[in-house]
Amino acid sequence: MNAKIGMISLGCPKNQVDAEIMLKKIESAGFTITKREDDADVIIVNTCGFLESAVAEAIEVILEVKDYKKIGNLKKIIITGCMAERYKDQILTEIPEADVVVSLGQNKDIVNIIKKALSGERGNFFGNKYDLPLNEDRILTTPSYTAYLKIAEGCSNCCSYCAIPFIRGKFRSRNMEDILKEAENLALNGVKELVVIAQDTTRYGEDIYNKPMLAELLQKLCKIEGIKWIRTLYTYPERYDDNLINTVKNEEKLVKYFDIPIQHSVDRILKDMNRKTTHKKIIELIEHIRKEIPGVTLRTSLICGFPGETEEDFTALAEFVKKVKFDRLGCFAYSAEDGTKAAAMPNQIEEQIKVDRAENIMELQRGIAEQKNKEKVGTVQTVLVEGYDGTLKSYYGRTAADAPEIDGKVFFKLKGKTLNALKENKKLNPGDFVEVAIKDFLDYDLLGETV
């Protein structure tokens, strides 16, 4: 059965890794993977279900691809991912355009499910979420030089606003040996940048080694030949210790980049969110990191409009943002998610107020980012080349201070000497590292030329 299978994966990099594992299973079974939706016999929509907005996006995608049943070759639409897990009993009834719904634990059986769907079977394929495949081969959907490395699944933090624990289950670490083996294989296949991910990377190892082991894991990853950059996302502030900070400080391959989602700065709000830290501890951690690693890049995420957030609380949050001056910051309007404790709390905030507050924080951050970029003018930055923009006639890439997909880029021209190399067909390729002198900036992006 040489059917053509297409996949659209939505949401976070953790969900993307799940999609990559499914794609490998599909390819190994002899199916043809296609990027052309109009040519696919089956389209898998690997959904996000973390927020109401993500569910709305997934539904929109499903309704868009259904048209290929009329104008293309499409026979079946299969729904996987977080929305499939969260709303598995409702999807087929409320979205009749979908043919099959696959819960997370059944990803392991995606090949048989495709065969059943093509043979005419319609329905739900449910399984234990703890059966989600973690230690299997995958087909990278990232550029060849960059890969996500998922070191754990699920979450046990139980923040009051978050649906992840009951969607993906309790936190569970992968064995270090399996992670290292995967990283070595990625390096052998040309990956130069590893992006370490989990719902809470700083919790890695607590469940299987009885202590945090992220620092030790990072130290071993740094020994893998061929890897140039390693960055870690989703690190929780309460689990930082000197071992982790010193590891990032001392290991050359670890980019000096800390992604620390704090969500708020007011103690009462943090407590209601079930966050295990305080305003004072957050400030102390940031000051400590900046003292130990001068020039470090700090990223965070914030939530505005959490139940009970007063104007005074919002003002305090804004003052905190102005004081700390994060290098990277994302702010989101609170979303009341079904089944979470926060959704049942009193004093819910009006939608427009939430949106306005989030936009105000982002406007503050825009000014901070502009100042940060201004300070980089005149410096020389190492840039990972990602491609060439024919319209702008400019190469583009990222510095160590920029995570893929979420941060800014560097657009750069080739200096005279390098132009001669171009004539000799020695062009820059995606995955190359070059030194770029920063000449200017535009919004969140830097502009420059090769040294």
The CATH architecture of the largest domain comes to Alpha-Beta Horseshoe
Helix/strand class: alpha/beta
If you compute it from the alpha carbons, what radius of gyration comes out, rounded to the nearest whole angstrom? 23 Å
State which percent range the strand residues make up.
15-25%
By DSSP (H or I, 4+ residues per run), the number of helices equals 16
**What is the rounded distance between the termini?**
54 Å
What name goes with the CATH superfamily of the largest domain? tm_1862 like domain
The profile of the biggest β sheet is:
6 strands, parallel
Spatial arrangement of strands, main beta sheet: 2-1-3-4-5-6
- Assembly type of the shown chains? single chain
Annotated CATH topology of the largest domain:
pyruvate-formate lyase- activating enzyme
Percent of residues in helices comes to 25-40%
What does this entry look like structurally?
The chain is of the alpha/beta class. The protein folds into 3 domains: 128 residues, 3-Layer(aba) Sandwich (Rossmann fold); 228 residues, pyruvate-formate lyase- activating enzyme; 71 residues, OB fold (Dihydrolipoamide Acetyltransferase, E2P) (Beta Barrel). The strands form 5 sheets. It has a 6-stranded parallel sheet with strand order 2-1-3-4-5-6, sandwiched between helices. The chain has a 5-stranded mixed β-barrel with strand order 15-16-17-19-18. It has a 3-stranded parallel sheet with strand order 7-10-11. Helix 10 packs parallel to helix 11 and helix 14 packs parallel to helix 15. 43% of the residues are buried. The model has no long low-confidence stretch (mean pLDDT 96).
